[in-house]
């Protein structure tokens, strides 16, 4: 598999109190099957769609840890990138550490407080499948410090920050890696705003989107499985999406990229 370009989201995993319950939830919702859990890595369990890896589930070693999806951004030099994170006003939460022969990771946060991971690939490059139903589709960071955060991702990863008119929400931008042409088709992620309409206690965070065949059906299945809706389905030029919460409290989004509209509508 070809390596992911610098800064491109290459992997996601979710930390859960109960991995077996997570397997039942995501297996039913997204059609995933699962590999053998690795006890030496916190019961780390890879998820597959049609035999290709698409994400992973991991057990919470500590109840104080958040139940949440994590996004990994690719880097060819995790030590150097972690240094850039510090230099540009971010925080290194966990210094670079090798994960067997799979690769080397670090956990960091941007200047607005949104946590993400860096991944320098070894034998595990990242997604074998993405952009199709049942797999990863998109990631964006939500922040209250847009100017500082935009400058951070430009400096650390070389992203070009462009307005995203297709998002249907004012102030949203998209990221395009260095060397790629401008335009939504070349973007790899984006940045939204935590506006006054959100709870004051909501922290800055990354939101992971998974592609589905039908957004409304996925929302209904989420509720049937014990999850709930955080943001009702809306149709934009990018597709019809909804933010939901799984049966254990982890937030994510589902998006049907084939159902599109000219402006954001319910």
TrEMBL record:
Alphabetized PROSITE patterns for the sequence: VOC
One Pfam family linked to the record: Glyoxalase
Annotated signal peptide: none
The name this protein goes by in its record: VOC domain-containing protein
Domain VOC, first and last residues per copy: 8-121
InterPro entries: Anthracycline_SecMetBiosynth, Glyas_Bleomycin-R_OHBP_Dase, Glyas_Fos-R_dOase_dom, VOC_core
CDD domains documented for this protein: SgaA_N_like
């Amino acid at each position: 598999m070809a390596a992911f370009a610098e800064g491109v989201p290459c992997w996601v995993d979710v930390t859960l109190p109960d991995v077996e319950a997570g397997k039942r939830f995501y297996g039913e919702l997204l059609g995933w099957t699962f590999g053998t859990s690795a006890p030496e890595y916190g019961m780390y369990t890879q998820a597959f769609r049609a035999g290709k890896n698409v994400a992973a589930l991991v057990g919470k070693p500590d109840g104080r840890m958040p139940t949440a999806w994590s996004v990994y951004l690719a880097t060819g030099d995790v030590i150097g990138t972690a240094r850039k994170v510090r230099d540009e006003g971010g925080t290194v939460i966990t210094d670079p550490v090798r994960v067997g022969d799979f690769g080397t990771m670090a956990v960091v946060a941007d200047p607005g407080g949104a946590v993400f991971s860096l991944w320098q690939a070894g034998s595990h490059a990242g997604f074998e499948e993405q952009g199709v139903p049942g797999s990863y589709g998109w990631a964006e960071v939500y922040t209250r410090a847009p100017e500082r955060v935009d400058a951070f991702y430009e400096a650390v990863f070389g992203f070009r920050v462009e307005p995203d008119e297709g998002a249907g929400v004012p102030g949203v931008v998209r990221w395009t890696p260095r060397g790629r042409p401008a335009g939504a088709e070349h973007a790899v992620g984006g940045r939204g705003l935590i506006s006054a309409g959100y709870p004051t206690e909501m922290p800055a965070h990354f939101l992971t989107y998974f592609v589905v065949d039908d957004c409304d059906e996925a929302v209904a299945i989420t509720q049937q499985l014990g999850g709930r809706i955080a943001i009702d389905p809306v149709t934009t030029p990018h597709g019809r999406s909804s933010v939901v919460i799984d049966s254990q409290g982890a937030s994510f989004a589902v998006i049907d990229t084939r159902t599109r509209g000219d402006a954001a509508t319910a």
